[in-house]
Description:
Structural class of chain A: mainly alpha
Radius of gyration of chain A: 19 Å
Helix content of chain B: 25-40%
Number of helices of chain B: 8
Oligomer: heterodimer
Number of strands of chain A: 0
Largest interface: A-B, 23 and 31 residues
Distance between the termini of chain B: 39 Å
Amino acid sequence: MNFLNARQMVLAARDLAEGTRKWPTWYVLGLSELRQRYRRSVAGPFWLTMSMGIQALIMGFVLSFLFRIDVERYLPFLCISLVTWTFLNTAVNEGATCFTSMSAVILQVKRPFWIYVMLVLWRNALIYAHTVVIFIVAALVYGLLPSLTYALIPAGLALLLLNAAWMALAAGLLSARFRDVPMLVQNAFTVLVWLTPIYYHADQLGSKVRLITDLNPLTYIVEVARAPFLNEIPPPHIWFIAVGITLCGWAFAFALFVRSRARIAYWV
Amino acid sequence: MKQRIAFRNVTIDFPIYDANARSLKRSLVLDKVSNFVSRTSVGGNFHRDRQGVVTVRALDGIDFRLEDGDRVAILGHNGSGKTTMLRVAAGIYEPVTGEVVAHGRVMPLFNMMEGLAPDASGVEMIRVRGSLLGLTEQDMEEKTAEILEFCDLGDYIEMPVRTYSTGMLVRLMFAITTAVESEILIMDEFIGAGDAAFFERAQLRLKKFVGKASVLLLATHNPSVAREWCNKAMLLSHGRLMEFGKVEEVQAAYERLAHAQ
């Protein structure tokens, strides 16, 4: 239909640009939503920090015992893994409902649809900032001090964000039309957490089993966003693959957006 | 006269994915037999598209243009397409067939209470509602003082809005909503607000607010509101534009239509 329609392409690109430019909308709403969620609670959003910290602590001790790794090496790794994964997982899952849950708002005023995706990303970026504290604590406790690899953190996080963005957009668009998609995404991530090196190092798998994580795109995205925190520099091929995934993912999500942007209001 | 908004042969079909096509069989068959018989007194006509999805034709070949100074009341039975037409004019539904051209800032006011979060304070609501209406930080700073003064809620403005009475809440949302100027104003039923003391001030503010807009599109069931605020009217029936002209004449046509059914 309007898959490669030039006019629809321009409109879709303009939607992305306008939605980014109208940052006060998602900035204010994101902050306000997070504030609503923790109103009148003393610890507020630091509940997220605490619950993830306790989870990491207990998992860290149990799994380091099972894996026979030193806790002081394993715990910082697990902390940053959990924080990174939680961001990706929550952003994409909330992205899947970003249009359907906002249907009342979408039908009020014409706004760029990208705003609703940015809202999800921004809210989860705020949560990331709160939860990354557990890694900092673990790193300090176990003497994992910042090094020059920290210079790569912005690049790694940018790739993580760009990938969360296209996945959230694509999931949101598909979910607006096909209401099974949110459940599908949720189930996919439940499985993917075991097929991505989150709780374990890829090296711990035998060379045959390792193929699974090597073929999993999320492995590379998580790796570039995580390794610099652990004073490791991912080899160049990891970066190339991560960038490649980002480009392919965006091409897919943008094509989907070109095709369905004008129909979102009818679907929600 | 500058043209503000134009509909060119706009048709809007809503896909209804969860409709059971079989239970609508009678309507779908009848639809092919005759397009002149309207089967229900509400809603648009049912169709079935090429993929077999049931669609409702909410607007059918709408064609008109409005210029600066037009204040248009939209009349019609329940489900005649009034709200859909307003949403198309606001750019929310993009037509697949036909074209809509609008010049200037469009401000649709379907629901003053949009974005209401019970636990937020009055001040925070101003920011949230303002950002939903697309105000920039700078706009908001300029408007906030004026909004506070008009809604006159005193120290309550720092309290969570769930502690407000209904009237106080309306005051606040009304003040925020009417603080934003626009060229094309779109309303689904007229907004009004408050107790006796507030009512007059609200009327005055509303006059100014509507006056600033170049074009008003107002869907209403209230004949006196239509006569007071509008200089033109449209009559919609089953998604078709039946009449477009002077308010009295269109109202008379609407009454004839209502009696005929």
